[in-house]
Structures are given as structure tokens and as C-alpha cells.
Structure prediction request, 217 residues.
Amino acid sequence: MGINPFITPFDSLPSTLSLFPLPGAIVMPGAELPLNIFEPRYLNMINDAIASHRMIGMVQPDPSGEGEDAVCRTGCAGRITQFRETSDCRIEMVLTGVCRFDVGEELSTTRGYRLIVPDWSRFADDYVDHTEQLQGDHERLMQTLEHFFDAKGYEADLAMLKQLSVARLVDSLTMALPFDTAEKQMLLETVEPEQRLANFIALIDGDFDVPDSVTRH
Prediction:
């Protein structure tokens, strides 16, 4: 991640984090996720975040976990970078991914939303710019994407996509493409950018089996 004066440094990331479980939705570091907030507990969550560090933790519910409240073991914290209150009592906002985390101890709260102790330790690399590191894979990735879009009948602005770095392409398309929960989670949990690129290409080539255990917490 490039230097951004608005982003909390890694060694100053918050010791507690609210959770926003949302099926099929993840945010990756440096990428943007638009959200529409209307449930009272999550309105509380956003208002509390804005009053403090402006960060919330996006995490997917775990469909294979025990109980309705089971969530995947890893999420990504995002910073509220755009915010608008609507006349019908909703909040329209944009969340910009900052750093991934592993879900730790859950804390009690009276505000309706879930609060946890995040473990950031595996993801210090989220603050590193990997543009040069992956630059040599750009042409291969674009060729693979063109074949994938043609095979699926998807329309895509390839000229715009070609302007993005490999890391940004992989992260943005991980969020945007219709991968299932386990597939999105596998990519989110992959720490090394080279391995995430390899896993992403294998997924869109259709020859990667995601283990059932990847989503468990």
C-alpha cells in the first residue's frame, strides 16, 4: 500500500474492531467497497467508528460454521472514506481497505453490533506496494482475463483494466467477480501476493479446488 496520510500506520492499528458480516462481500487492502447501511445496529457501528478511528472490519459469515453467528476466520479492516446520510435514514458510504486481520476474542457491547480483538500480526505486508514485484506477470494476467471474459460472456473495459497494476487487478476482481464464499475467502487469506496471483489465475482457469477448512473460525 502506498503512503497515505489518512491511513492508520500498521503499528497504530486499533486494538478492538467492530465486525460487519456480509455474505459474498469482502474488501481488499487499497480497494474500495460501496456500502448501504440501514439496520439500526450497523448505523450505531458506523456512527461509533466515525467518532473514533473510522475503521470497521468486513468479514464473511461462515456457512459451514457452527451456529448462525459463525464468521470466517479472516477479514479486512476498511476506513470510511466517503459518507452520506440520506433522508430515509440510511448511510451511503465507501469503505477503503486498509489491512487484513484474524478474528480474535469477541467482546461484549451494548450497541448491537459485534466487537472483537483483531490479530493483525500476519498482515504487515498489506502496507507494502507490490507493483514492481508483480510487474512481470501483467501480460500473462491480462491474457488469462481476456480468455475468461470471452468464455463467460462478460463485458469488461480491458483498456481500463490494463492500466491497473497486477496487485490492484487481482484484489479488485477478487471483490467483483462472482466467486463463492470459500473462493473469495481463500484469496483474502492468502498472504503472499505471488501466491494470491497464482491462486486467482487457477480459479478463473477452473482448475483450483478450495479446501473446506479455509473458511472456518
